[in-house]
Each structure stands twice: as structure tokens, then as C-alpha cells.
Design a protein that fits this description.
Layout: H1 2-22, E1 47-48, E2 69-74, E3 82-85, E4 91-94, E5 98-101, H2 107-118, E6 127-133, E7 137-143, E8 149-153, H3 159-165, E9 178-182, E10 185-189, H4 191-197, E11 211-214, E12 221-226, E13 232-235, H5 242-248, E14 261-265, E15 272-276, H6 278-282, E16 298-301, H7 309-345
Parallel strand pairs: 1-10, 7-11, 12-16
Antiparallel strand pairs: 2-3, 2-6, 4-5, 7-8, 9-10, 9-11, 12-13, 14-15, 14-16
Helix pairs in contact: 1-3
Length: about 350
């Protein structure tokens, strides 16, 4: 584990250096901890989102937002060439075409949109758009990172680059179980897959007030849900089998379809589903495997035959939200308060 964390942090350092060679470096303030009364944790109840496709990745480009300054050039039309600031409502004003909503679009998408609108007035317009100045964004790194705190970003920054600013994970940092909290929604992310497998679908662009929480591997759990007597989280331990986990959850109810147990493994947005015929395993049928569980696995004992992954999610999401989000929000509040107190001592 020690060697693995060293390798990961080395990769993060290499990536941050490589990115700085391609573009201006991310300007980083020293970590600034907000005072105790200022907290980024949403006051509203968090909800679990299993749709990371809604998050813009580094490959899709930075999403334009309010207060960004855009340089718009319409070639051979100096009267239309201008520098403009995106308004609070996400719009800009352009001569001829009026207000245009650009919030959430990439630079390429803004350029295409303006070209289409101007083509009604100009023959074959050539439009170029670039971000002249990014609005300052504050993101929060909490949990098992070497330099937790608040970071101000003034250019497009993805989560992997920002993680390098925060010093990378600590020795017990669980990158595979990372959470991104944005606008009261919690997105499970597997940052380990970015480093090990180059899974760029997880490498999202960070926005203002994003919270990135890297949990400790010491707190890794298994979830046993569905038709068991005591559904919930149990501490992970080595050599924990699916049958052992169900036993620790009090065993199954009479309504359980124990021949159709599912093990849900990996990121919840795109998981691996493993079928476990616990009925045959208990009967001693050696042709069926008593799977060993991994940290974060969800063992789901259904009441009926499961038709699809969407049906599983519909069944387990309310329980998962209770098991994951309530302690997560409490943990974030405690971490922020502790860091705020520490910052006050250091002043």
C-alpha cells in the first residue's frame, strides 16, 4: 500500500508538470480554511446521483459560467469583435443577434452557436472564441489528502490536477471511494481508475464550491441490503465471503430469493454485477463460487427476480442514501470545523 500511494503521488506530480508545459500553470493560493461559521457543506439534504455523465470531463472542455471573460473575434468584422463578461444569468450580448445563453457550454459549443446565429446576417462568418479570464473558483479538498483545505482556481482545472495541488492522497487515502459534492448532489467517483486505467470519464472539470472528499481506507465497508434481517453497512475484513456478509447482517428473510443474490462492485454509475447463487452454496454445491468481497461491495438480496440494473437501483437507492449521505454530511461538517479551528490557531 505504501508503494502504491507513492506511485500514485508520483503520477500526479508528473501530470501536473506535463500540464504546466502545455499551458499556463494553475494559480494556487495557499490552502485557506474558512472560519467556523463559513462552511461549503450544503444546508439542504444531500441526494445521491449515479449519473456522472452529467458532469463535464476534461475531454469535453471547461463549461463557461457567469463572470468568465470571453474574447469573441469575428474575422473581417471589427464592429462585432469584442471582449465580454458572461452575466449572472449565463448570457452575453452580441450585436445583431442580441442576448445569447452560453452558460454550461464549452468554448467550441459557444463558437458553433455564435456562428450559426450570425450566419443569418453574415455570409460564412468566421468566429473565434477564447476565455480571456476565468472566474475565480474555490474548491474544497477534505479527508485523506496531504494538504486538505480550500483552493482558488483561476483556470480550467480537472479533479486529477486539483488533487495534485492538494498533495495527493495520504497513505490510507481511498481514491476508489472518492465523493464529489456539487449543488447538494453526491457523485461517487473512482479516482484510482483514472491513475491505473486512464479512465477519463471520472476526470471531471471542477466548478465553484465543489467539495472533494477522499475517505480513509480504514473506514472501508461492505453494504448488505434487501431481504436480510439487519440491512446496513458492516466493516470490511479480509476473506469476507458473500455468505459470511449475509450472516453478519442477520441472515435472510423468508421472502428472500437467495439463489438470485447480486454483488454490485465498482462505481455505481457503471458497476460490475456478479450473480451469487447463495442457495446452492449453502447446499454445498461446489460448482458455485462463494465470492470473496471487496471494499465498497454491495450485496443485494432481492425479494423477486431482478429484471435490470435500473430495478436494482430503484430498490436500493433510498437505503444507500441513508447509509452513505447522512454520515458523509456529518463527517464533512466535523472536518471543516476541525480545520477551521486549526487555521485559527495558526494565525
Amino acid at each position: 500500500m505504501h508503494k502504491l500511494v507513492i506511485v500514485i503521488n508520483g503520477i500526479l506530480l508528473f501530470l501536473s508538470i506535463s500540464c504546466s508545459e502545455k499551458r499556463a500553470p494553475v494559480v494556487q493560493e495557499q490552502p485557506v480554511i474558512p472560519p467556523p461559521q463559513v462552511t461549503p457543506v450544503p444546508s439542504k439534504e444531500l441526494t445521491l446521483s449515479l449519473s456522472p455523465e452529467k458532469l463535464r470531463t476534461a475531454e469535453q472542455g471547461y463549461p463557461v459560467g457567469p463572470w468568465d471573460t470571453l474574447q469573441i473575434t469575428v474575422w473581417n468584422h471589427p464592429d462585432l469583435t469584442k471582449q465580454t463578461i458572461v452575466r449572472k444569468d449565463g448570457t452575453i450580448y452580441m450585436p445583431l443577434i442580441g442576448d445569447v445563453h452560453v452558460e454550461g457550454l464549452s468554448i467550441q459549443e459557444v463558437q458553433k452557436l455564435l456562428t450559426e446565429k450570425l450566419s443569418y446576417y453574415i455570409k460564412n462568418p468566421m468566429v473565434d472564441v477564447e476565455i480571456k479570464e476565468f472566474r475565480s473558483r474555490r474548491v474544497y479538498f477534505l479527508g485523506s489528502v496531504n494538504k486538505p483545505g480550500v483552493y482558488s482556481l483561476i483556470e480550467e482545472t480537472n479533479i486529477l490536477e486539483a488533487l495534485s495541488l492538494a498533495g495527493g492522497p495520504t497513505m490510507d487515502g481511498n481514491l476508489a471511494g472518492t465523493f464529489l459534492i456539487r449543488s447538494n448532489k453526491v457523485y461517487p467517483l473512482n479516482l484510482f481508475n483514472i491513475v491505473k486505467y486512464g479512465d477519463l470519464t471520472q476526470n471531471v472539470i471542477l466548478l465553484d464550491k465543489d467539495i472533494i472528499y477522499v475517505p480513509s481506507s480504514k473506514d472501508m465497508k461492505i453494504f448488505v441490503l434487501g431481504e436480510v434481517r439487519s440491512p446496513g453497512a458492516i466493516p470490511f475484513q479480509n476473506e469476507l465471503s458473500v455468505v459470511d456478509a449475509i450472516a453478519q447482517a442477520g441472515g435472510t428473510l423468508h421472502s428472500a430469493k437467495i439463489g438470485k443474490v447480486k454483488i454490485i462492485r465498482g462505481n455505481l454509475s457503471n458497476p460490475t454485477l456478479i450473480n451469487a447463487d447463495v442457495d446452492s452454496i449453502i447446499d454445498g454445491d461446489l460448482s458455485y463460487k462463494n465470492y470473496m468481497l471487496m471494499p465498497g461491495d454491495i450485496v443485494y438480496v432481492p425479494k423477486t427476480i431482478i429484471a435490470s440494473w435500473n430495478q436494482i437501483i430503484e430498490d436500493i437507492k433510498p437505503t444507500l442514501e441513508t447509509l452513505i449521505l447522512s454520515p458523509l454530511q456529518a463527517t464533512l461538517q466535523v472536518l471543516i470545523y476541525q480545520q477551521a479551528i486549526e487555521a485559527t490557531k495558526n494565525r
